[in-house]
Amino acid sequence: MGAIETLTILAAAAITLALFSYLWRENLAYRIAEHAYIGAACGYGVLVAAESAWRLLEPRLTQGLTYWYLTAVIGLLYLAFFSRNYFWLYRYPTAIVLGSEIGVTVARSLKTQFLEQLRMTATITFPSPFPFPYLNSAILAVGVICALFYFYATMEHRGPLKYVSKIGIYFLMAAFGAAFGSTVMARISLLIGRLRFMYFTDPAYYLIPVAIALLIVGIVLDRRKKPETA
C-alpha cells in the first residue's frame, strides 16, 4: 500500500470518527468534518454541473451554432447574486430556470403521479389459478378510495363515511410506516458500511483507540470546566 493510499484511508477514517463524535455533542472536530464535507460536495457539484453544461454546449458549437453562447451568458448572470447594484440581473436566469422546470415537472408529475397511478388503480387484474393478483388489485383500489375519502372535508365524517375514512387512516399509516421503515433501513445500511470500513480496512482501525482516548479527554475536560458565573 502506497503512502498516498494510506493517507487517504486515514483521512476518511478520521472524518468518519469526527462526524460520529456528534453523538457526544457538537464539537470542533465535528464542525471541521462537516464543513469539509459540505465544501467538497459543493465543489464537486460545481465541477459536475460545468462538465455537463460543456458536454451539451460543445457539439452545438462545433456545428457552427454560435447562438448557443447565449446560454453561457445567461448562466454567468447567476454571479450577479453577489452584487448589490446588479442583483436584478440574477432574476433573469432564475426566472428562466424556474419557468422551464415548473413546466417540465408539472407535465411529468401529472402523467406519472396522477394519470399513471389512476390507471394502475382502475386496472382490474383478472383472476388466475393463483388468486393473489386479483386480491392485490382489490386491496389497492379499496386503499386508494378510502384514503381519498379521509381527505374529503366538504361533509362531516358521519355514518358510512366515518368508517370509510377510518379505513383510509389505516392504509395511510401502513404506507407511512413502510416508507419510514425503508428510510431507516437505508440509514442503517450506511452505518454498517462505515463500521465495516473502520473495522476491516487497514490502517483505519488504528484510529479507533485514538478517537476513544480523545473523546475521554474531551469529556473529562468538559466536566472539569467551572460553571460560568452570572
Give a structural overview:
This protein has 230 residues and is mainly α. It has a domain at 130-230. Helices cover 74% and strands 0% of the residues. Helix 1 (3-20) packs across helix 2 (28-62) and helix 5 packs across helix 6. The protein is extended. The two termini are 56 Å apart. The model has no long low-confidence stretch (mean pLDDT 87).
- Give the tally of β-strands: 0
Backbone shape: extended
- From the N-terminal CA to the C-terminal CA, the straight-line distance is 56 Å
> What's the main sheet like?
none
Mean pLDDT: 87
The structure class reads mainly alpha
Strand content: under 5%
Instruction: Name the quaternary structure.
Output: single chain
- Give me the strand/helix succession: HHHHHHH
Radius of gyration: 28 Å
Taking pLDDT < 50 over at least 5 consecutive residues as the criterion, the unreliable ranges are none
- Tally of contiguous helical segments: 7
- Helix coverage percent: over 70%
Write the layout of secondary structure elements.
Elements: H1 3-20, H2 28-62, H3 69-76, H4 91-122, H5 132-150, H6 160-200, H7 207-224
Helix pairs in contact: 1-2, 5-6
Short description:
By secondary structure, the protein is mainly alpha-helical. The protein contains seven helices and no strands.
Keywords:
230 residues, single chain
